[in-house]
What does this fold into?
Amino acid sequence: MPTYTDMTRCDGCGECVDICPSDIMHIDPVYRRSYNIEPNFCWECYSCVKACPQNAIDVRGYADFAPLGHKVRVLREPEKGVISWKIRYRDGRIKEFAFPIRTTPWGSIKAAGEYEKPDAAAFGTQMLAHEPTALHIDALPTLEQKTIPAKQAKA
Amino acid sequence: MARRTRFVDSDILVIGGGFGGCGAAYESRYWGRDLNIVLVEKANVERSGAVAQGLSAINCYMGMQWSENQPEDFVRYTRGDLMGLVREDLVYDIARHVDSTVHKFEEWGLPILKNPQTGRYLREGKWQIMIHGESYKPIVAEAARKSATTVYNRIMVTHLLMDTVQPNRVAGAVGFNVRNGDFYVFRAKAVIVGAGGGSHIYRPRSVGEGMGRTWYAPWSTASAYGLLIPTGATMTQMENRIVLARFKDGYGPVGAWFLLLKSHATNAAGEFYEKDRYPEIKGRVGHYVDIQPMPTCLRNHAMIEEIKAGKGPIYMHTQHVLDTPEKEELGWEDFLDMTIGQAVVWAAQNIDPKEKPSELITSEPYVMGSHATCSGAWASGPEDCAPSDYQWGYNRMTTVQGLFGAGDTIGGSAHKFSAGSFTEGRIAAKAAVRYVQDMKSNTPRIDEGYIEELKQTVYKPMENYRIGRNEIVAGTVAPAYITPLHGLQRLEKIMDEYVGGYSMFYVTSENLLNRGLELLQTLTEDFENVGADSLHQLQRAWELKHRIVTAEAVARHTLFRKETRWPGYYYRADCPKLDDADWHVFTGSKYDARTGEWEMSKLPVHHIVA
Ligand SMILES: Cc1cc2nc3c(=O)[nH]c(=O)nc-3n(C[C@H](O)[C@H](O)[C@H](O)COP(=O)(O)OP(=O)(O)OC[C@H]3O[C@@H](n4cnc5c(N)ncnc54)[C@H](O)[C@@H]3O)c2cc1C
Ligand code: SF4
Ligand code: SF4
It folds into this structure.
């Protein structure tokens, strides 16, 4: 395929169409459900699978080297900050894993323009936004100057 | 067909919302509070570019806060890995800033693994730190989206626009909306290109339905080079295309397995082939073989020779290292966070890594400027440390006025990876803000006739199809046009067979290259007859164009550099050895769009770090 849509689960919402980096999830005009229009440009990136609110998309490994009978399923829960995987082998064995995906609430990042406006002096230096503070050392290294000593190692 | 034209004005136009582009959008806003910053992306910034699926490591982090590494150490490392040739000023510049980028990522919510004993970031290797990176791209995209004035998703940029008064100055870009077909004209005072490197320049090992299973994403269509080359921007190191050693078929990464889990690879007989091949490699490249760690290309070389000698399969012995549940999780997360296809291969082929080893192989070649390789544009360096002939103005500005780049776009600075590409976007953006302020009253001018001409060009593949389609009943075989896929497969075959692809064991020569260039010329001509039956295929057509232009640059650079600088990435069979006397230089090229001529040059290498 590698992705395919379960006809009975999909409600044609278009989330997968919106997200696919390869622009290959499209809505079929007759059935009003999504499908992969160009499987040979699919990367099995799972962006569409993670985005589908109906869990309607699955992946069947590339036919040229993946035997049938396996499944790699995913459930991404952004509000909980967790992603869970369930892997079923061709011979039936199962492996399950869950990993954290984000430590702060979605939407909480400050735009660059919300920080205090830098002054003209900073603009004239080699320093980038939030430096040197964000470097966690006292000054931006330059080639003339020897190594900047590290601050006390933080735990 | 009448297509609407939409004009968008901006101060800074960022093309491509991947790691370089997101860094550029963020930093432009930080310094340019009242500037109009436009980000344009062919997919959706939320999940676009090489990091769409996530990553499990950040491969460029110094750790200056703990004195783990200094920027100078990183310059020495990349210089060694690239066998003497990196733009040390650019590499140094990224290294000194990259820690602030990574600390910002952590503050934004990216989970970075910690070493429980030391409390420091958990190192995978000397330069890499481990992350839970499934949402790496959405997190970074949130920062960029909020910082840009406007983000345009689903617009494929096809051409850069040049100023009508000053021929060597950029004035914006044009493209089309892949959903509704509108033609977009972006006028800008400065342009930052972060449009990504190139997969599918060479024939992939995977076939048929699986052909999208390349190591670099199939949507990495070399636009970073395909947009720049026609402007006459000087390019460098385009012959330095990279071959990756990865888990076979799935292309799962090997870094965490070698470096963190301390797994090892052998040939089928269980022999440690790398060290056995030392004398032969020494004969080819001399002292470069003794660099620690051994340059990436030379490790490839050892594997390629082993496979040629019939000693494969090469195996990664994962079964020896997964002795705790934590290590098993780490091993799987490495794939699930960044190459899910590899987990699919294990499940499908009944390979439990705790029980069985897995095959390794070398990939088809890719063209990119941010990994263990450095193809891309020749850029002006940082004002405080670039030698004078690396400096003609603003940091990260190409040889075209007002045209900046980041990530895969900029040549000569390898090993940027994700955090380094974002950092380079930041560096370019600060310089672009300065450029815009300096140019205050001098806005680029664009001629209406020129726009109209470009508009015709952009939609021509659909016109070709509309007319040519009437000659046939159904199907894809038409006398008047070829599809974008046909063109892509022809390109891949030419590059594979003449310019050192996997089926040639990466070998080429002057005669092969000259023949390859003849065939590329006819493909360039045939591109005029590509037929697109939809806006989606129109996007594929322009992706093909960007790949063809890039491929020609690769072939020309490889022909010009008469040595084998990076055995394991490619071989000039007629110049098999590394030749520092003549070639301790960068290769340069400049394309003249009016005449179709390429001007090749040697550009100087300055060692600024001892
Ligand atoms: C499988 C894999 C594993 C990797 N592992 C690691 C790792 O562990 N650690 C690490 O640090 N790095 C890793 N990298 C490398 C890292 O992803 C890249 O170095 C980095 O993403 C390059 O940034 P960029 O901005 O140049 O390109 P990208 O991030 O690819 O961004 C390019 C953007 O431009 C857009 N675009 C392209 N063409 C056009 C056009 N014509 N018009 C409009 N938009 C366009 C694309 O859609 C994309 O969003 C890995 C990469 C891959 C593929
Ligand atoms: S996201 Fe899911 S439900 Fe929505 S169109 Fe796609 S497959 Fe159907
Ligand atoms: S897996 Fe990725 S490339 Fe394939 S259809 Fe889904 S989003 Fe697109």
Notes: Chain A touches chain B through 88 residues (CB under 8 Å). The longest strand of chain A covers residues 71-77. The radius of gyration of chain A is 23 Å.
